[in-house]
């Protein structure tokens, strides 16, 4: 697949509302927790350095304890997913 060209949904024109901006952090935490749960179920545990053989990973921590760079990775994933949903014509809004 040397000629693979990703075909992403155009989202550059999408701006998230303040309600959705608040949702981003909660979804980013959930994204991390889902990832961590899967890793733990596969036998991974916390280690200061990543080691695939011994299944150690430095990000197997609660979201609040992650370095800001790792939190930002989860936030970007969530933001792009929300923007893609909106770009495809769906609405995301909180029920009060």
Low-confidence stretches: none
What's the total count of β strands? 2
Query: In this structure, how is the largest beta sheet organized?
Result: 2 strands, parallel
Any idea what the shape is? globular
What is the rounded distance between the termini?
47 Å
Radius of gyration: 16 Å
What class, by secondary structure content? mainly alpha
- Count helical runs: 2
**Main β-sheet, spatial strand arrangement:** 1-2
- In the CATH hierarchy, the architecture is Orthogonal Bundle
Our estimate of the beta-strand percent is: under 5%
Provide the domain count: 1
* Mean pLDDT reading: 95
Helix content: 40-55%
State the name of the first-level CATH class: Mainly Alpha
Order of helices and strands: HEEH
Distinctive features:
96 residues; mainly alpha; Globin-like; two-stranded parallel ribbon; 46% helix; globular
Topology diagram in text:
Elements (H helix, E strand, L loop, with lengths): L17 H24 L3 E2 L9 E2 L10 H20 L9
Parallel strand pairs: 1-2
Please, could you describe this protein's structure?
By secondary structure, the protein is mainly alpha-helical. It has one domain (18-87): Globin-like (Orthogonal Bundle), CATH 1.10.490.160. Helices cover 46% and strands 4% of the residues. The chain is built from two helices and two strands. It has helices spanning 18-41, 68-87; strands at residues 45-46, 56-57. A two-stranded parallel ribbon has the order 1-2. Helix 1 (18-41) packs across helix 2 (68-87). The chain starts with 17 loop residues before the first helix and ends in a 9-residue tail after the last helix.
